[in-house]
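Researcher: Quick sanity check before group meeting.
Model: Go ahead. Protein one:
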Amino acid sequence: MISQRLHTRVFVCTRPVDMRKSFDTLAYLVRTDLGRDPLSGEIFLFLSRTRRTAKALLWDGTGLCLYSKRLERSRFASPWRDDGKPISLTASELALFFEGSTLVFRTPLSPPTRALQVLAPSPLDAR
C-alpha cells in the first residue's frame, strides 16, 4: 500500500510511458524527465499511452517500490501537458487518481498547504 503521509509529494510524468518499464528505467525517467531524485521518498506517477495502466514508483527507505494498476472499464485522467510545467499532486489526490476519478488534474482537489509561522514575541510585549 502507498503511504498516506500528509506531506508526501507526488510528481507526475507529463508524457506517456511504456508500461513494460520497471524499476531502473522508471528511476532514470525520474532523474531525466522530472529532474528529481528517485530515492527522495517522493512518489512518482507514470501513465500509459492508452491511460488504462498507471504505475507509481517510490523509495520506502529500504528499497524502490513499484505499484501498478490497470482499469478495466474506464481510463485514468489525462495529466499530459504541452506547456512543460511539472505537475504535482497531494497524497489524497493520488488516492483519487488510482480510484479512477476524472476530476484529478482538472481542478485542485486539496486545500492549499500553508507554511507554519512561529511568531516571536514582540520587544514591545516585554513592557
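Researcher: Fine. The other one?
Model: Protein two, sequence then structure:
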Amino acid sequence: MRTTKVLSITLPEAMLKEAKRRAKKENRTMSELVREALRRYEALQSLRELQAYGEERARAAGILTEEDVDRVIHQYRAEKRAAAEAKKQMQQRKAS
C-alpha cells in the first residue's frame, strides 16, 4: 500500500527548469527536492513563530534592547550566586 499521495503543482517555466537542474545536480528526484523544500519551509516557519513568541515574551518582561538582555542575565547570575553562597553558609553553620 502506498504511503504517499500524488500532488500536481504548477510552476513558472524558469522555476521548473532550475528545479530540474538542481535535482539532476544533486542526484535527486523532483519529489525529493520538493519534499526537502517543504521541510525547510516548515522549519523556517516554526523558527519565525518561536522568534515571535520570544519577542512577545521579552516585551512583556520589559526586555527591549540588547542592553536589557545583558542586564537581565547579569541580574539572574547575581541572584544565583547569592543563593549558592547563602546555601553554602547554611551548610557551614550546620556543620559547626
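Researcher: One line on it for the slide.
Model: The helical segments are 13-25, 30-60, 66-95.
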